[in-house]
Design a protein that fits this description.
Chain A: InterPro entries: Cell_div_FtsL. Chain A: Keywords: Cell cycle, Cell division, Cell inner membrane, Cell membrane, Coiled coil, Membrane, Transmembrane, Transmembrane helix. The structure holds two protein chains of two kinds. By secondary structure, chain A is mostly helical. Chain A has one domain. Helices cover 76% and strands 0% of the residues of chain A. The longest helix of chain A is centred in the middle third of the chain and has 55 residues, at 15-69. Among the domains of chain B are: 79-154, Penicillin-binding protein 2a (Domain 2); 228-272 and 286-553, DD-peptidase/beta-lactamase superfamily (Beta-lactamase), CATH 3.40.710.10. In chain B, strand 2 and strand 3 form a beta hairpin. The chains are: A mainly alpha, B alpha+beta. Chains A and B meet through helix 2 and helix 3 of A and strand 3, strand 7, helix 10 and helix 20 of B.
Chain lengths: 98, 587
């Protein structure tokens, strides 16, 4: 108790308040920095979320496109008309040389 | 030390000054606290609300509706994002060249669009397009036309279209299921949108989002037991057969007889679920489940199976069907082609009504009834499909001699196609009748025993006669495989009562390979109007093509191979490739 009193009233009487003020300023700056970092991260998270949403949309569309292109009616039409394929209805042996 | 201090002369201060100062300070305190009280307590709700209004936004997290897929993961119903273009009419009308450009991109007549906007000049919001793809919307927005905006929405697409239309069903404008599995599985498919409350800064960036939030629940994907390849084959062949026979409709069901999984279920007339106009007609009905019909001759194998099971007849038993008709009270049972003295194989292959009636009467009403019961004719299918028809099988105590005789050849009771498939799956699966399933996730119910394994295999041997030479359905034969089955040519009930002369349902139901079946298939053509109406002529060829394709797709090895040894001269394709590419199942 006496030492404490000395500290305040003695020669270094201003040292403690100064140190405390300094610490307060540091912590205030730290708060600002953390807050800023938080906002940057939140912003990033939000960007990621909309990116995820966009990719999901794209995935749905690509699936649709794939399904449309590989629709059996279309594949069959192309196979028959453009490639001249047929369905074998029995075992057919075809010679490998034309 | 105290002597160094200047010695002030203390003057007495009047008491009122002290009180005045205290009073003023006190007043200040009261005012400050009062204001604080007013803001913090009295107006708090209002102020918080106003603050939130300026910074806090609720963002909706969309909950997507689950997809419906076939057993190999091919999509049958998908939700995909779309954009709807909307405009503020007055703003857009101010720059006519933009109206022209927007109309061109949306594929509308510029003049029509202009008139359309003029008529709605006073409105602040008007849709100027249907749902279009986000890429197209991007193009429209890049014109930077004044007062043109886009709104994101979700639309349901059915990539398989008409092929699986009746099974999958469709959703209404509100995104809820209205028909088929979309309706039946609404609870599982529907997604629940979540919400997130965030604080936004002036430029709209989210700066804080650890406020309350509710996660979105996406709908579950639904896997069906349908195989889209077989479904397509069934659809294509059925549609062709309905057109060829000038029929009113028809249906094809293919099921895996060991597990009861339905691999294909096609109905005609069909409809395209992507087309809103198409949905209104009768095409959306899934006839395999919702329509009951009298099974006719197709029950004869089940009757014979019961007779064998009870030991009343042996596979070698003979029945005299001369002279081709048989009187039971007021009823005369007739055969189209009298066969005289027949064994069971010929009875089935020639589909003798007289023979069936004689077996039925020999068994008695109760045994016939209990036989049908064991094949599940009194039980629902439990398909979980909306509008499933219940079977109608009256109790044997209500049957007289006539009812017993008619029930023996399949009249006087009503079943859905699924009931017949299930019953035949029992014969195919060595007497164990599986429960049919449409959803891959449906719990597998242990099969029920309908008849003994010995009887089931004897029955398959007897039913092979139907597709062999002299049988009613030689056209159901599939080269390389042993096929067992049965035809049915059912006279429909006339509107006026009694049976119609000219309206028939032609049915073929069968299984393959007969020695150890994997597949059961049913083909029904409703009211063929092009001359032929026998099941063996109308339905059997469809069965043959569909089942041959299904066997190839599922790689069911043929039982007997009669491979041609030399190249066949006649049908050599123009190119070397002979098979349609089979896609490997995805892993």
């Amino acid at each position: 108790m006496r030492r404490f009193r000395e500290l305040i009233e003695g020669r270094g009487g201003m040292l403690l308040p100064l140190a405390l003020i300094f610490l307060v300023v540091i912590s205030a700056l730290a708060v600002v920095r953390t807050k800023h970092e938080n906002r940057v991260l939140v912003n990033q998270l939000n960007g990621m979320r909309s990116e995820k949403e966009r990719l999901n949309m794209e995935w749905a569309q690509l699936q649709l496109e794939e399904a449309t292109l590989s629709h059996h009616a279309r594949v069959e039409k192309n196979a028959r008309e453009q490639l001249g394929m047929t369905e074998p209805h029995d075992y057919v042996v075809v010679s490998s040389k034309p | 030390m105290s002597s160094a201090r200047p010695n002030y002369v203390t003057q007495t201060v009047p008491v009122w000054r002290r009180w005045a100062v205290l009073g003023l300070l006190g007043l200040g305190v009261v005012v400050v606290f009062g204001r604080a009280f007013q803001l913090q307590v009295l107006q708090r709700d209002f102020l918080v609300q106003e603050g939130d209004k300026r910074h806090i936004r609720t963002l909706v997290i969309p909950g997507h509706r689950g997809a419906i897929r076939d057993r190999r993961g091919e999509p049958l119903a998908l939700s995909a994002p779309v954009e709807m273009i909307w405009a503020v009419p007055a703003a857009l009308l101010e720059s006519p060249q933009h109206v022209y450009a927007v109309a061109k991109l949306l594929g509308r007549n510029p003049k029509d669009l202009q008139d359309f906007l003029r008529n709605r000049k006073d409105r602040k919001f008007v849709y100027i397009s249907d749902a279009i793809s986000p890429a197209e919307a991007e193009r429209v927005l890049s014109l930077k036309a004044p007062g043109v905006f886009s709104e994101a929405a979700y639309a349901r697409y059915y990539p398989a279209g008409e092929v699986a239309g009746q099974v999958v069903g469709f959703c209404g404008r509100d995104g809820r299921g209205q028909e088929g599995l979309e309706l039946a599985q609404e609870a599982a498919l529907a997604g629940k949108a979540g919400a997130r409350r965030v604080i936004r800064d002036r430029t709209g960036r989210v700066v804080e989002d650890n406020l309350e939030s509710k996660d979105a629940l996406s709908g579950k994907d639904l896997a069906l037991t349908i195989d889209l390849r077989i479904q397509y084959l069934a659809y294509r062949e059925l549609k062709a057969a309905v057109a060829r026979n000038n029929a009113r409709g028809g249906l094809v069901v293919v099921a895996d007889s060991t597990t009861g999984e339905i691999l294909a279920m096609a109905s005609q007339p069909g409809f395209n679920p992507n087309n809103v106009e198409d949905r209104k007609g009768g095409g959306s009905r899934n006839r395999g489940i919702t329509d009951g019909f009298e099974p006719g001759s197709t029950v004869k194998p089940l009757l014979v199976a019961q007779a064998l099971e009870l030991g009343v007849y042996q596979p070698t038993s003979h029945i005299d069907t001369t002279p081709g008709f048989f009187k039971v009270g007021a009823l005369t049972v007739r055969d189209e082609h009298p066969q005289g003295d027949v064994d069971l194989k010929v009875l089935l292959s020639k589909s003798s009504n007289v023979g069936a009636a004689k077996i039925g009467l020999a068994l008695g009403a109760e045994s016939v009834w209990s036989g049908y019961q064991r094949f599940g004719f009194g039980e629902p299918i439990y398909s979980g499909f909306p509008g499933e028809a219940s079977p109608v099988l009256r109790h044997y105590s209500e049957w007289g001699q006539i009812a017993t005789a008619t029930a023996s050849y399949g009249y006087g009771l009503s079943l859905t196609a699924m009931h017949l498939v299930r019953a035949y799956a029992a014969l195919a699966n060595d007497g164990l009748m599986p429960q049919l399933r449409l959803l891959a996730s449906a719990p597998q119910v242990p099969p029920q025993r309908a008849v003994s394994a010995v009887v089931a295999s004897e029955m398959r041997e007897l039913m092979e006669g139907v597709v062999q030479e002299g049988g009613t359905a030689q056209r159901a034969a599939i080269p390389g495989y042993r096929v067992a089955g049965k035809t049915g040519t059912i006279r429909k009930v006339a509107d006026s009562g009694g049976y119609a002369d000219k309206r028939h349902q032609s049915v073929f139901i069968g299984m393959l390979p007969a020695e150890h079946p994997r597949l059961v298939g049913l083909v029904m053509i409703d009211e063929p109007g092009a001359g032929d109406y026998y099941g063996g002529l109308v339905a059997a060829p469809v069965f043959s093509t569909v089942m041959q394709g299904a066997a190839r797709l599922l790689r069911i090895p043929p039982g007997q191979m009669n491979l041609p040894t030399s190249p066949i001269a006649a049908p050599i394709p123009t190119r070397q490739t002979v098979a349609l590419p089979i896609r490997e199942p995805r892993t």
